[in-house]
Amino acid sequence: MNECMILYFEHTWHVIKTSHKSIKQDYKLWTLEDHDYIFNWLWHLKAQDTENLDSRSCYKFITDTQALIISLAKSLSDLLIINYILYLDNLFSNILLAKILEELDIDIMSMIQVNVLRFSLELVQLKQVKQSLKWEHLKTAEADEIDCFLW
User: Fold this and answer.
1) Do 42 and 51 touch, CB atoms closer than 8 A?
2) What is the total count of domains within the chain?
3) Residues spanned by the domain of 120
4) pTM, whole model, 2 decimals?
5) Are both 144 and 88 inside the same structural domain?
6) For residue 70, how many other CB atoms are within 10 A of its CB?
7) β-pairing, 146-150 with 139-143?
8) Which of 30, 75, 80, 134 has a CA between 20 and 30 Å from the CA of residue 23?
9) How far apart, in Å, are the Cα atoms of 87 and each of 60, 105, 110?
């Protein structure tokens, strides 16, 4: 999953201004991709935030950003045959999203922020020590039946 920008110079209500990015005025897409090949996407629309965001009503307590991940994940073909792993950055991921995707038989690999709800307290404490971990260090923990790793 990724956030993409498409350069655009004309005037429209759907253009996003991003002064902190290399492309200053653009369309914004949320994409499901692999090696720069885009399988599916959702437009980011200012007025509606994101088009076709149907997952919001199905799950309580998830953000719009997490709902778009679920919506794009459901568009994958052969969910019952192929084992998918989605790679997410910390903008998207948390334990609740991992649980919902697990119900769809989709695994995630992700960085996660330590202040995420339901995240393993043991791993949070290790992360907050502010010391480098020893080489090849691996610590595992379970958070709400989701395997979590710190390395």
Assistant:
1) yes
2) 2
3) 116-151
4) 0.71
5) no
6) 21
7) antiparallel
8) 75
9) 23, 14, 6
